Amino acid sequence: MFPVNILNYFKLILEKTRSLLKEQIKRLNIMPDRGIDRAAMEEEADQEEEFVNQQSAAHTLKERLADIDSSLVNIKKGKYGICSKCGKQISAKILKIAPESKLCQDCKKKAREKTNNR
Ligand SMILES: [Zn+2]
Q: Which of 22, 38, 75, 97 could potentially form a cystine with 80 if both were Cys, beta carbons 3.0 to 4.6 Å apart?
């Protein structure tokens, strides 16, 4: 386990990132302006595409938010920084880059190799 001061440091970063993400998601969820003027069909299609892009961006952010939420829960439970796959301690170096990490360096690498081989 990490010392309390380091845990508090990660907690602070996680909470900060969490509120930032929430704001970004809120902004993305605002529906694009759909006027009653349907004459410009092409423009409509562009808006549709933009909306889909926004939705997928919002989805990515929501996934990250969920990771952050579970990291914050794990801090409370005293299980923060433990790899969800192999149960090893995730190095502080990784957590400093991505405090919501659920996997250790080895498992992350393996997961990445799997994706690349698809
Ligand atoms: Zn692992």
A: 75
